[in-house]
Amino acid sequence: MRTARPPALERSAGFQRLLAQFRPRLREPLGRDELRAEGILAFAFLLTAVPLAVLAPHHGHTSLLLVVLFVVVYSVTSKVEFDLGSGYCVPTQVVLVPMLFVLPAAWVPLLVAVASVAGGLTSFLRRQRHPARAIAGVVDAWYVIGPAAAFAFAGLTGPNWSDWPWLLAALAAQIACDFSVNAAREWLRAREVPRLPARLLVQVYFVDICLSPIGLAIAFASKGHPAAVLMTLPLTALLMYFARERQARMQSALELSQAFRGTALLLGDVVEADDSYTGVHSRDVVELCLAVGPGLGLDEDQMRRLEFTALLHDVGKIAIPKEIINKPGKLTDEERAIIETHTVEGESMLLRVGGLLGEVGRLVRSCHERYDGLGYPDGLLGEAIPIEARIVCCCDAFNAMTTDRPYRSALSLGEALNELRVHRGTQFDPGVVDCLLALHPQEETAPQPEPAADLVGAA
């Protein structure tokens, strides 16, 4: 039996950050900006859905019992929530499609709004959601406006394979409507261009697209036998089981990520307890790296690895004799060879922890590689050195130059920046140097000195 692990998306730093924020936020009341956004969109929904229900042509009689049946089934299905970090998707498409065929399509948006609010009642009673968030159920029904309008305009009264162009148009209208409303939601909350996470949206729409044929099959079965919609309930129960399994798995992934962070911080404390200078130096390097990383376009996963690598880049020095680490004079060749093993020692320690810190261990190994290939331990050249290690290498040396060491006094800020300029493209990645220089624009015009000694061993 193999041990299951979360998919790559669920292991990503961005996904886990959204997941950690999402569930607790549901228990809190809406903020002022959120409430304003939800109120505007809910009012706009009613202004659209009510005229559509009243003015769209409707033929024949619709049983109240049938309406109640679909509302109840939809509300039950809406309780199946697959977490997607900053939100969730629900398999309501299997109920929505037959609703559009069996009931007057123009009524469906309002009925879905009622069913969405009703489906959240138990969450409100259990305090899993704040009651003020009931308004979100109304806004969530916006996605039905598109297909309902397409059905009403086309006059579709029953499922027919010949209507497939209209069915595709209705699905496209649903996706477009949902995307537009979510973008409007984000804009109204933050008053800035929304940055909707594309991977998460693709997952939501993929679920709707895959469930649409199943909903269409149920619609065919419901033709003349509306109670056939109850066939969705076993599927709903199965999906609810899988949703809970997924939620538990993602919670485990989140807890594991937090455990890795805790372990990294603990190891950082161990380094500081073993050598106070190294510990403080590592924390200063973390701050520098986190300032440089965004300027180089690092994503959230890379920033997380960069943070841990900066914090633990000297963890291997625990295995180096203190008389060598703190030697006030110049190191002998033998002593330098010993101290240069600290990157490999650090990698070995972190590989024993495994997981995320195992990945960080491989980066720690490369933190003293040089951009020109003359570093250690592997002599990697240029882009072959991981970007996180290139950033740590430069920030590490810069911090070392600007602090007092046992064997020399600190350089001034201007002198340290000039050293970076001199070694740009040889010892250090030019892009990293440029980002560090950009953090100190007031020193940019300082004169450049003659090339100084190699800085690799300085940190």
Radius of gyration from CA coordinates: 30 Å
Give the overall silhouette.
elongated
Provide the spatial order of strands within the biggest beta sheet. 1-2
Total domain units: 2
Order of helices and strands: HHHHEEHHHHHHHHHHHHHHHHH
For the report, how would you describe the main beta sheet?
2 strands, antiparallel
What this model shows, in words?
With 459 residues, the chain is an all-alpha fold. It is 64% helix and 1% strand. The chain is built from 21 helices and 2 strands. The chain has a two-stranded antiparallel ribbon with strand order 1-2. It is elongated and about 95 Å long. It starts with 7 loop residues before the first helix and ends in a 21-residue tail after the last helix. Residues 1-10 and 445-454 have low confidence and may be disordered.
What is shown here, in short?
The protein is an all-alpha fold. Helices cover 64% and strands 1% of the residues.
Q: What is the strand and helix layout of this fold?
A:
Elements: H1 8-11, H2 13-26, H3 32-55, H4 64-77, E1 82-83, E2 88-89, H5 93-102, H6 108-119, H7 121-125, H8 134-140, H9 145-154, H10 164-190, H11 198-222, H12 232-274, H13 276-292, H14 300-312, H15 322-325, H16 333-339, H17 342-353, H18 355-365, H19 387-401, H20 413-422, H21 430-438
Helix pairs in contact: 3-8, 3-10, 4-6, 5-11, 6-8, 9-10, 12-13, 13-14, 13-19, 14-18, 14-19, 17-18
